[in-house]
TrEMBL record:
This is Molybdenum cofactor biosynthesis protein MoaE. CDD domains: MoaE. Pfam families: MoaE. PANTHER family: MOLYBDOPTERIN SYNTHASE RELATED. InterPro entries: MoaE_sf, Mopterin_biosynth_MoaE. It comes from Cryobacterium sandaracinum. The lineage of its organism: Bacteria, Bacillati, Actinomycetota, Actinomycetes, Micrococcales.
Amino acid sequence: MNENDANPGEGAVNQVATAPLDLAAHVAAVSTGSCGAVVTFIGQVRDHDPDAAGQVTGLDYSAHPDAGRILSEIVARYSREYPQVNLSVSHRIGHLDVGDLALVAAAASAHRAVAFEACERLVETVKLEVPIWKKQYEVDGSTAWVGLT
C-alpha cells in the first residue's frame, strides 16, 4: 500500500492511515458508560535504535495493499475473543519524524485486567501480522530497512 491508497481520514479508527493518528478518537470509539477502564497504547518514533550507527531522525512506513484488511481482521478476531472489551487500533504509514505517533490502540472494559490483556495482545498481533515495513533515516544521511524479521 502506498500513501495514496490509505484512508486519509483524520480521527478515524481501525485503519492504516496517512493522516496523523488521533488518540482521543480511539478512546471515544471504545468508551461507553459501562466501561470503568480504558487502556491506551501509543507507539511513537524514537531517536535511537540499538542497531543504528547514529541518531535516528525519522522513519518511512510502507504497507502491503492488504494491510488495512488484515488490521481489521485482527480487530474482529480479538473482539470475538474479548466480547466484554471494546477495541480500536490504527497504524500510520508515510514519513514520520521523531515523536510522531506510528501506532495507537485503545481497549475499554468494565475492569482493567481484561482491558490491559486485550490491548497488549492486540498491539503485539498488529506488530507481528500486519505487513508494514519501516525504512529508518539517521542523522548522517544513511538509511536502513529495520524490523524485517
